[in-house]
Fold these 3 entries.
Entry 1:
Amino acid sequence: MNAEMQIETQDAARVDDPFALDADERRKRRRLWIVLGAIVVLVAGGLWFLTRGGEEQVPAAVQEQEEAGPAITVMVPGSATIEGEINATGTLAARREMPVGVQGSGGQVSRVLVDAGDWVNAGQILAVLDRSVQSQQVSQQRAQVRVAESDARLAQANLDRALKLVDRGFISTADVDRLTATRDAAVARVEVAKAQLGELQARTAQLSIVAPAAGLILERNIEPGQVVGGGTGAVFLMARGGEMELMAQLGEDDLARISTGVTAQVTPVGLDRTFTGQVWQIDPVIDSQSRQGTARIALSYAPGLKPGGFATATIASGAVVAPRLPESAIQDDDGQSYVYIVDKDDKIVRRDVTTGLITDDGIAIVDGLDGTERVVLRAAGFLKPGEKVSPQVQKRRK
């Protein structure tokens, strides 16, 4: 009780004493200012460390990067055998066209036995003309042959009997000579009659229009009832052996890179099939306006090859051993091709090059590189000779 009373007495004394209350408040405020000051010092120290200390580290990293140079991708192309290819387009046509016309005097068409697109053999009948008159003429001439043969047999028999009687003196030598002459004339008339029969048969055979060789019928220009003759023109158009060709249009440079006998892959428009052919002829004349020439690619018969159709061709143009680079690595300066390479000091060096064959895998470099250089693959337009770089080597293509 005494202690509680003392505390109450002290509190009552503080309330009654205003000076004692101010001193206590001042102590609390002093402690608050000390805490705030410590916080300000800590914050200021952190800011100083971030600004002053960071400035010493960041420039060092930047300086190191600047000294190494920008990172670029390079490759060592090496050398490889590159199969050259030339792409061309052209029109399909029959390699050897054979127009088939009417022989002799002609006549009226009675039957047409084939149509366009049919395959025919040599000697096969394509159409038949009316031969009613010629058949009668052949029959009449056969009868004339038989008459002539009968006269010849009679003349021979008369001569044989005369020769038996001449020894007995019943027939004179003059009579024998006359009978001999009669026999010879009769035999000759047989030969004449047979020759006339052969002529009529040949004329009749001409009324059948036949294929001169095996091949494919491309056009049919004849119909039953039509009257045709020697001046009618071609009634059928054939492709001998069914062989086709692609008349590929090429520029002067490409024509100079190919020769007869090289292979080519031909793909007609509308087909997903490729046909293998061979260049059999190169036109010796270049068109003065288009500056192009024609390479003729022979193709064996196949149902998908249609004259007049459009096709693309990939022609082999030989092989070279050279470095090969992607198109992105090659720059152009007024027609002069060049690349950027990285030397032993990791600096950019310009190198003029000569390009060659173009393939799906890259462009051949026929002069200017030996394949051991580190060639810049991309972003060469942002570089300049003598610039320091940090090369990153990419594996070369196999």
Note: The chain is about 35% helix and 35% strand.
Entry 2:
Amino acid sequence: MAYSLGLTLYNLANRATPASAANRPTRPHGPLVWLHAPSPNSQPQITGLARRLEEDHGLNILITSDTNPDLRHGGILWQPTPNDTPAEARAMLDHWQPNILILAEGELRPALLAEAHTRRIPALLVDARAPTLMRGRDGWWPGLIRGLLGTFSAILAIDGPAVRAFRAAGASDPALQITGRMESPSAVLPCREAERTALAALLATRPVWFAAGLPEAEEAAVITAHRSAMRLAHRLLLILSPQDPARIPALVQMMEDTEGWTIARRAAEEEPESDVQVYITDPAQDFGLWYRLAPVTYLGGGMTDAGTNRDPMEAAALGSAILHGPRAGPFGATLGRLASAQATSLVRNAGELSTALGELLAPDRSAKLAQAAWAVESDGAEATDRVIKVICDLLEATP
């Protein structure tokens, strides 16, 4: 009774929500799985799950999320996240007729879940952390969360604390399982092997670090850290990729005039010869090459309000130890996982960056950090396999 009242109040409160755009691709023939990623944190895992279901099991996939995952798979379709109203839920389910509905993280969409339950479409929560209503939909909805949790065929939680959070919110034990965190698609960036081999030979035994996606506000901190670290390793090379290419001329002049350093620019087809202290690269190009060459990487943006601007898993996948600032930007969940595994070094200012860089110039220290990060980047395959088995079992049991 309380659940019905809570759902009614929720739907009444959101009845003025405008309808989503109705431009929907044609539904393909055959079974279809609807996957929903409620935030950028869950999109990589949902994307990886979609690929596995499409490639290994021949299923049609619909992904809904706020941003387009830009997949080049014929069996995977995408639509922007629809508004959660009874009319929108009916329209989406009428058009797509999914055989199963899969939500991530724990975000609950009351109108959609209620309509799917009425139609006897099984629903599943994956990578579940804690039950929450959609952002901006807080309110007094008596019994709503408890009732919605009862509509799930299974709730696949990432760990014990997540299970306890769902149990406290009213989920039944038979529906709860701990599967662990699903894997993300590989973050390994490509590079031209011949070029990597040639540059590695040119650099020989020189210590190297990489400043990736460096915003103007952090240039002084990186220059300070490089100056300090060169006192420990005078042959140290900084590979610097500025966030804004327009900053390159000013950077070159500043470092030449104030530091007296020799600068080489990739755009001018110059090489990081033995007398070069800083090698400036084109923004957003050849990151796979620099991560392979540099045992240590500082991810730009973390000391600014915008936050870290590069996916930490890119560096982790290629064995570069990670330094980053306190503001995670869009990579909060990723950096949180890495921090839990003691797989990154957090720096808050130029002084801490200088100290941390000096410590990581010791090969054993940087290797230990990089190994821990690589382990985080490569885990989750077993959890994904378990999630896929639950999905396939539910599909087989569905008339």
Note: The chain has two domains: 2-183+380-397, 193-378.
Entry 3:
Amino acid sequence: MKLCIHRGTHQIGGIATEIATEKTRIIIDMGDVLSLEPDFVSAPLDIPGVTDTNGHCDAVLFTHYHGDHTGQMLRIRPEIQIYTGALAKDIMRLSSAHSYQKDEVLCKRMETIRTFSAGKPLWIGDMKITPFCIDHSAVDSYLFLIETEGKRILYTGDFRLHGVRGKTMDKILDRWVGKVDVVVTEGTTISRMDSKNVTEWDLQARLKAYLQQYKYVFVLCATTNLDRIIACARAVPCGKYSLCDAYQFELVKTVSEHWHEFSGFYEMPKLTYFHQDPPTRFTELGGLMFVRANSKFKSIIRQFDPGQSIILYSIWDGYRTKPGSSIPGFLALTDTWEPLHTSGHASPEDLRHVIEKADPDFVIPMHTDAPQKIQTLFPDRTVVLLKDGEEFLL
């Protein structure tokens, strides 16, 4: 069996991983490179047999819908089957249809995606692939247990233990995964070895306090960070509004339709949506509004007393501090702004926890800009540091 990380051994995002036997070849994720530079265009990723006809590929599987994992979908030959979770597929379809640069070709390609279900094995050639739904800042994210030729590979994808569903990871590892031969793990936070993450429940509690202190609370967060949006909406007390635009409402509704039967957390929260202007009663009663850093929401926020308002910045801070960012000006619309965010990725300590439970013979880091630091987490394990395009034989 061969494993090759085509991109992502020494960077965060823009990743693609190949796992192949003599009979079967799959790719996991195929994303755009992340950058804070304005007008940046990701370098195309060329993989023989995937982006051209120089070879074969049986399938491409996406762990979740973030662009650094799916952004190069259209480079995949159209006859190659793509797989993802059912909810992730619907979110990608809604996001693509909503985009101001709607890509009809991409929309059509998304319609061809086949879906898998958590815990139900998927057979592709001689590979048994079992997806398990895990917590990340994208709902419907998956890790994969890949079994073939007597070997077991755990591909973690992006994950965390401090999210709404973080406790499910131990259940997955204890009940269904057990010991594996190889763990291919994300390592986004390895470069910040002392990083500690607050939980989504901590953020929800802080939001409740802000709602008592301020009449108007504006939350600037990623539109598809839907666990965050639902948790925030659930923090709003009776008698106050919880507002979003029609697009965010449709996304939350889609999540609820897929998952409300599995958890009460995903029952449709109290949300009122608007198209151009918020309801006039919001001025009287106050409450919470989800916003984005654009001219539409700038004009809306200016309608309210800045002394009674606060903007909660609920996105990775790098977007705020990058040169030329418009976000500082947006945050200045109210007298006060505060950060209200936690990472979508596992802390170094949580990475250690997962690796120890899976007890692999080999640990292969990726989705990290400091792979060499992972050895300090596992001094007694064999850590394999690959280069992009380098093959590992198992």
Note: The mean pLDDT is 95.
